[in-house]
Amino acid sequence: MTLTPTLLPKLIAAISETLASHADEITELDQAIGDGDHLINLQRGIKALTEKQHELTALDWPSAWQKIGMILMSAIGGASGSLYATLFLALSKAAKDQALNVQRFADSFNLAVEAVKHRGKAEAGEKTLLDVYIPVALYLNTAATSSIPLPEILNTVVTIAITGMEATRDMIATKGRASFLEQRSIGHIDAGAKTAQLMISAIVGVLIEELSASV
Ligand code: ADP
Ligand code: MG
Predict the structure, then answer these.
(1) In angstroms, what is the span from residue 104 Cα to ligand 2's centroid?
(2) Confidence (pLDDT) at 97
(3) Distance CA 95, CA 171 (A)
């Protein structure tokens, strides 16, 4: 079966719901080592995407990702705005003019995460959202060329995202606002890693539901 951008309203709604139901937790995390606006920043992006969702469903994936990137670029403030815009614009560029399958998506996603690393001048282990995206991208790349069934790959992605998010608790922040706290940033999960994990889990939830409905 093929998953098309007609799925986007469901994906956007699922992301919106998970952010809303973890609102206090996310804000507390960003207040502890950031400036407390991370949730509001993301929600501004989600609202803008919701308003444009019917234009998005008419597109193919690379065009939809490009439009999402541009919408997020203008709607979200803060560090996370330009990083998420970069993620989607790079994903679009990498996937353009190719018939999309799991392996090509994994390749494109890896390139997109590389672009975010470049944009944020950050690597794994710096206590950012990249501590979720990097291990997920690496796993997807390996899994896509294996014989592991897609639902199993997706479930593992959720586990890896949770592990990556939790690992940020013991890291010292060396990028973004939290880096001003140096050693005092230890002991708190990074807000951007938390929302990345929540959004990935929400996306996987929708995908698994679609896959099981189609068999
Ligand atoms: P701001 O820090 O500008 O207020 P947000 O609060 O929306 O922006 O986002 C903060 C999150 O962005 C952090 O929790 C972290 O995960 C991520 N982040 C910040 N700087 C970087 C960077 N240079 N590279 C990767 N991620 C970053
Ligand atoms: Mg902030």
Answers:
(1) 33
(2) 86
(3) 33
pLDDT band at residue 2 under the 50/70/90 scheme: confident
- As given in the structure block, the two tokens for residue 168 are 């940020």
Shortest-distance atom of ligand 1 to CA 37: 6
What does the block give as tokens for 127? 């206590």
Q: Minimum-distance ligand to the CA of 134?
A: 1
Centre of ligand 1 to C-alpha 128, Å, is 7
Spell out the alpha helix ranges (H) of 76-168.
78-95, 102-120, 130-144, 150-167
Place of tokens 């608790």: 169
Q: What is the model's pTM?
A: 0.97
In the chain, DSSP finds a helix count (H) and a strand count (E) of 10, 0
The amino acid occupying position 89 is L
User: What pLDDT digit, counting tens, does each position of 48-78 carry?
Assistant: 999 999 999 999 999 999 999 999 999 998 8
For residues 59 and 3, the answer to whether their CB atoms sit within 8 Å is no
Q: How many residues does the chain have?
A: 215
Q: Which two tokens stand for residue 153?
A: 């790959």
Q: How far is the CA of 107 from the centre of ligand 1 (A)?
A: 24
Around ligand 1, the residues with Cβ closer than 6 Å are: 30, 34-35, 37-38, 41, 78-80, 83, 120-122, 128-130, 175-177, 190-193
Domains, the chain, with CATH or none = 7-213 (1.25.40.340)
